[in-house]
Give the backbone structure.
Amino acid sequence: MLVHSYDNKISVQTKPGHQPTQVYQHTETLRVFALSSNSRYLASTSSINIADADAYTDYPDSSCRIFLWDLNTDTRKVLQGDDKVEDLSFSNNSKILVTKSKKGYLSFWDVESGDLQGKSKSPWNKVRMFSKDDSRLLASNGPELVCYDMKGKVLFSIKHKFYVDFAAYVDDTILVRTGDHRLWKYDVLGNLLRQESDVEKILLAPGSEDTMLVVKKDLSAQIVSASRSSPLLFRVDEPYMDFQFSRDGKLLVGQRRWKWNYFHMWNIETGERQTIEGRDVTFSKEKNYIAITRGESICILNVQSGEIVRMIPKRSFGGSQFSEDGNILFVQEGITVKIWDVKYGTLLGQVKHETNIPPPIIREV
């Protein structure tokens, strides 16, 4: 499935490269959209098309409305908020939609009924992560960590001296990084377990509830287990500017500082390192492929053998992403998304997607 937007229309292609199966038109400028994890529900919101709209107090502000589309039945609900909506987040089980207003208030909506379950009483929230069982939501409000239930009730809050820029559930704990380069570890009730200093960045491994990358202030890094008392799996002592896990969390790539023409890739289990020419790495999920930029082409490599599977031309800057089965590569060039068959190297089609909204959504159905 490919979900993309252009000219205030959201198009859904069940088979990428074919004609859209569904097209949803907005009469105003599309602001943001989100797809539920089960690929059934699509939420979107838009903004009015007049200059300085805030000055028109009697204007019916459509940006307060959320459109909730059911892709299975091709029906729509309209959820009426009381402020402009700037962010949309579905829970893991796709039963709750959380919307964030311009002032940072959170609203909790029941997806099936469309009913408002509750709202946060404090503004300036930023959604961080749902708990695994979808009973709680972590959010941050400047230096404050806030834990909500699914009706907007505050279960607990923790104030730090510096702003919170990372918060996540990891195993049975909560990890928080603050602007003073500190890593805080709490239990699920908000009790402090430990803290660590000089932490620059945290990156969680997909598919793992425990493995994470901790980048230190000197740009060295550690692959650690969050739940163990002796967590170190292996170290990366050289300075790296950017890291990325593979989609199964078993591989890690890092781009060296000032070394943009090659990157290193580690096996998480063994710590073994490879050096690969290229940049802008994209992982497939199923076929052990990586797509990397080399000059004016995208090179698709087999990770295990190192062999080149396919070379695909790329004429301008933009990201790329594999389909879930690894058979299709989506390449964005400006406002154009090109759809390539990986096995045969043929162009299946191309669509347009606005550059000022979130990237296209690619999902298995």
User: Anything to note?
Assistant: Residues 123-196 form a domain with the Thrombin, subunit H fold (CATH 2.40.10.480). The first strand starts at residue 2 and ends at 6. Residues 36 and 326 are 21 Å apart (CA to CA). Residues 49-60 have pLDDT under 50 and may be disordered.
